[in-house]
Amino acid sequence: MQIRSLLAGSAMLAVLAGCAAGQMDEQAADEPAATDEVVYQGTLPCRNCAGIDLDVRLMGSEDSVAEERTFDLEASYRDHPQNPPDENYAGQWEVLDGTEAEPDATVYELTPEGDGQVYYFLRVDNNTLELIDPQRRRFENNDMLQLQRQ
């Protein structure tokens, strides 16, 4: 009788271990694979035009050394009356910890080389970045300021 209980218990552990491994594999599939380049795109509101198409490429990862974390940012104005040229920036990005409202949040600070505005993006989730202000506060129309991972 003890041998049957032991065999049944061992079989149950094997089944549970297989289920747990399957769940872990599913969770890993939900998370984007770590790559050297991640692209986020979206259209931000514009007071004088139909919108600003934003394309952000982050090279490196949060775990990379600072020198390996670079970015390219392209901004194109749709139907702007003055027809400004596209803006292109390249530089380094840093990982900042939290915002006042969300201390555990992750914020990316994109600092262009030379002239250009520093951009701050809140990582909403693995597939969404949201433009926030330099004091790391979210804007009221935050859903209109989000970029999606491509």
Number of strands: 8
Quickly name the level 1 CATH class of the largest domain: Mainly Beta
Overall residue-averaged pLDDT value: 83
So how many helices?
A: 1
Strand arrangement, major sheet: 1-2-3-4-5-6-7-8
- What structural class is derived from the secondary structure elements? alpha+beta
CATH architectural label of the largest domain: Beta Barrel
How many domains would you count in the coordinates?
A: 2
The stretches of 5 or more residues where confidence is low (pLDDT under 50) are: 1-33
Q: Secondary-structure element order, as H and E? A: HEEEEEEEE
Describe the structure.
The protein is α+β, with helices and mostly antiparallel strands. It is 19% helix and 40% strand. It folds into 2 domains: 30 residues; 113 residues, Lipocalin. Strands 1-2-3-4-5-6-7-8 form an 8-stranded antiparallel β-barrel. A hairpin with an 8-residue loop joins β4 and β5.
